[in-house]
Amino acid sequence: MLINKKKRVSNTYIKARKNSSIFGLDCEVLSLDDAYCVQKESLKSRSDISAWKLGGSTDLTRKLFKTESVYYGAIESKFVFNASDVVLPKFIEHPVGELEITFKLSREVENLAQFDLRSEPIDTFIESVLPSIEMPWSQFPLPEAGLNVLVADSCAAGLLILGEEYSWNGDTAIQLPCQLNGNECLVEGNVNNIVMTPSGALREFLLLAKQHQLSLRQGQYVATGGCTPCVPLPVNEVLTVTFQELGGFSFKLLGE
């Protein structure tokens, strides 16, 4: 009976993502474990997953969603871009975004079961590090709907735009200010906003991935949480992301 209920709720989320409908009362009875089951079920209807996004890694998201733990969602390949002109999908009418440190995963993530993830050096699982901007999107009323709805909705996965890859030299090399500029400064922040450091957030995700038996792959990306607040993004304007010492990139959002 519980399995049927999870499947029914899962279908509700999938329909809501596709058709912009509002969730029904069934969604309110989800536990966090149920929410991850719903997310996993919904991923079966999507194409290739090339990135994961993390939440619960900043004081703000922990306060908004009343948690002390990292949570995650998946991003489809078609919504992950290298820095360039990016055509906005029609469903994103009001783009918002936040600057994030993103890791590219090494081949060792494909065999997490053989590692003690609490003691293994995190460098084992990192191929490179990239500046990025993550653009969340959801049709659900967040944060009011709560953590379980957010997780079931794949952590409000939208778009991920990536800058250039850099060698990973440890968290101390990237605990620096960052900024997003358009015709004016849109937002400023700091990598130190990630309460357990970006690599610490990655470790928490890998522990969850092992627990939930996720099929991680070499070359997938993990965006580790907002180094800045999430702010509205202008369309048809050159935007520049800058991470001190890590570098930056420019891009433009184009309306369809």
TrEMBL record:
Protein species of origin: Pseudoalteromonas spongiae
Official protein name in the record: Fumarylacetoacetase-like C-terminal domain-containing protein
TM annotation in the entry: none
Top-level taxon of the source organism: Bacteria
PANTHER family named in the record: 2-KETO-4-PENTENOATE HYDRATASE, ACID HYDRATASE
InterPro entries: Fumarylacetoacetase_C_sf (IPR036663), Hydratase-Decarb/MhpD_sf (IPR050772)
